[in-house]
Specification:
By secondary structure, this protein is of the alpha/beta class. The chain has helices at about 15-20, 35-40, 50-60, 70-75, 100-110, 125-140, 160-185, 190-200, 220-230, 240-260, 290-300, 310-315, 325-330, 345, 350-355, 370-380, 400-405, and strands at about 5, 25-30, 65-70, 80-85, 115-120, 145-150, 270-275, 300-305, 320-325, 335-340, 360-365, 380-385. The strands form two sheets. It has a six-stranded parallel sheet with strand order 3-2-1-4-5-6, sandwiched between helices. A six-stranded parallel sheet has the order 9-8-7-10-11-12, with helices on both faces. Strand 5, helix 6 (about 125-140) and strand 6 form a beta-alpha-beta unit. Helix 9 (about 220-230) crosses helix 10. It binds uridine-5'-diphosphate-glucuronic acid.
Amino acid sequence: MSTITVTGAGYVGLVTGACFADLGNTVTCLDIDEARIAGLNRGILPIYEPGLKELVDRNRESGRLRFTTDYQDACRGTEFVFIAVNTPSGQEGEADMGQVRSAVESLARVVSGRVIVVNKSTMPIGTGDWVASILERLGPPDLQFAVVSNPEFLREGAAMIKYASNAFLATKISFINEIASICEKLGGDVKTVARGMGLDKRIGTAFLDAGLGYGGSCFPKDVKALAHMAAVNGCHPQLLRAVMEINRDARRSVMWKLRQRLGSLEDRLIGILGLSFKPNTDDLRESPALEIIHLLRAEHARLQVYDPVAMDKARRIIKGVEFCEDAYAAAAGAEALVLVTDWNEFKQLDMARLKAAMAYPLFIDGRNIHDPEQLRRVGFEYYGVGRGQSPEAGNGRVTRPTQVSATV
Ligand code: UGA
């Protein structure tokens, strides 16, 4: 068993640290955010991840996992240091390495003896040599070290692979979203198309769910960073650019659908189901919900929003919306509901009750989790993504609630 330090107690670092501790290693998680570390020392997790709290509690109590903001304390006698800090997108789409630089510089000043530094965050080509040069420059003269790359779940020692894998998966998503918009206009069902495609083993079913596009801290940033690396090295990354454009359009299609049916969105009451970028996380980074909410607010719509776990985080960054205690409250009095995140909870809603709560039963299923026919039977005017029907403006627009009560 080893002594391990993990710098960055976020989505990657905290999970990595807790799992290593659970395997029997002695782990110190280090973060410069004092409030975050104080919380962790009291058992309060800064992120939601299924099962993580139990894992952290168990290992903290057994003494195998501890948290600190002090580099000196965290690195004393350590054998492995994992760098798991953020590498957000910079102005031009490049990976911003500021946090990695400051973590490695702080590390170099306190490590001694023999240490292996592990690049865990997704970092551009050449980072291994760059990290080594910082350690050589700032570390003690007798420091013996190696720098290795261990991007999550992917092959060690060849970090290009990580960017290419993520960009390929993002391409699969944008591909199926393009097929979805064709289906929508031509009357096909993208789910049937994706199922059929997936039966071909060379293609596979994974990452062929059409919807509002990819979000999160990985795909958007990695596709952008790869396109940036390509462009500054003399390539013309047309496919990657198209992938990003289709992803942007996927979110915007919600606006078009709502406008087709409601006309002006000014002062219209709209419910939003789901805020996190995908289910089972409270991560809001690059979440389609944030963009859709921004666009709706720019058109002066009134919004009622709900998410099963991301409400606390959302309250800190989303302003001017009403946060509701459940999906039914988000639907109350609304003229449209937009399902943004495919939480299981939203698959199991009492749809008749949901419909009864609304002023008009327009349902935009941004993740295709419901059966169109079933929802239409309940009385919803249902639109999925690429499910054969697109909203027509001419088909009797939804009138505002005062008039709706007389006509619906
Ligand atoms: C992704 C990769 O899947 C991991 O293999 C990788 O290790 C990780 O990035 C990383 O780079 O660290 P993650 O960002 O957590 O993992 O989330 P995914 O489950 O891949 O979903 C990404 C986004 O794509 C979500 O917004 C999801 O809703 C969307 N998506 C996924 C679709 O729109 N359609 C699909 O068919 C699949």
